[in-house]
Protein: Anaerobic ribonucleoside-triphosphate reductase-activating protein
Organism: Staphylococcus gallinarum
Amino acid sequence: MSVLNLINGQGYIARIEAQSFVDGEGVRCSIYVSGCPFACKGCYNEAAQNFRYGEKFNDEVLEEILEYCAPDYINGLSILGGEPFCNLDTTLRCVREFRKRFGNSKTIWIWSGFLFEYLANGNPERRRLLELIDILVDGPFMTHLYRSNLPYKGSLNQRIIDVQASLTQQQLCEYITY
């Protein structure tokens, strides 16, 4: 099966970090989904490439994630992987419940090996997830473009994208970090 056709993973979460200071701006709850077909050389989370790594995602895990996001000092939810857009059975459900509970008072960041343009113009289910998030860090990790001092990304090819501005203006709007 092609990576382009892989929509739903096996429903596993590799790791949950209740308080992360590196996966986006502010203090965030970070979830790492299991399963990534890109298998980027030098991936920092190689174990999460396995679609059955970690614990099964279920109602209790979802509630745990939402409770971690509830305190006022938590700025939002970050979803990494694995590949979030190849695990829509988990990520789309989580993002929808997050938006139900918190509206737009907190932000959602997602890291993906897919490019924004592909997600915006491709599979409608992937587009639905894209439409619900604030920031997308896109592009596969490339070892030869790695730099240790890049904010929120690992290699120079990756972009930090303001998703809502990009969709509204119908052109890519990079998010400026300070």
User: Anything to note?
Assistant: The two ends are 40 Å apart (CA to CA). Helices lie at 59-69, 88-102, 116-121, 124-131, 163-169. Residues 4 and 86 are 9 Å apart (CA to CA).
